[in-house]
Structures are given as structure tokens and as C-alpha cells.
Design goal:
The chain is of the alpha+beta class. The protein has two helices and two strands, in the order E-E-H-H.
Length: 89
Amino acid sequence: VSDEGRPAWTRVQPLCILKRADRLEECYSLVVIIIRTGRTHQIRVHLKHIGHPSVTDGKYTSQQLYDSDRAWCPRNFLHRHRLTFEDTK
């Protein structure tokens, strides 16, 4: 998120809070995300901006957090469930 950046619209809806059995002090949120713009890395940038980066995000988290996440989740934990496009013509 930058003052020089282009506008981007993202809605984040939390579904539940999860805890790993081996790390009860760490909480994770399962969320539904809806975007109306398609900026590069939009979801990842906005999640980091609100203080909740996606799991195993090597670009938008510290190396320490990335390494910790990678120990149990070998890839970025950001998955598409549905993809739709609106024809603006």
C-alpha cells in the first residue's frame, strides 16, 4: 500500500480463527477475500498492510516468519476457490 500506488479494492471476511495443535500461541485466520481490482500482488500486499500476511509469503514477511511458516507449510497458503470476471462491455 502506497500513496503513489493505484487504487485497489479488497474485502476480507474472516470465517474462523484456527490454532495449530503444536503451537497454541499462534493464531491463524481462515478468510474469504473478494477483490474488484486486479493489481499485482494485491491480496498479499493488503493482508500485510492490515497486519495479517498470508502463511509462507516470502515476499511480504520477514525471513524469520517465512522460515517458521515453511517448516510446516512448504508453499504460500493462498488458494483460489472461485474465479469470476465481469464483462464490462
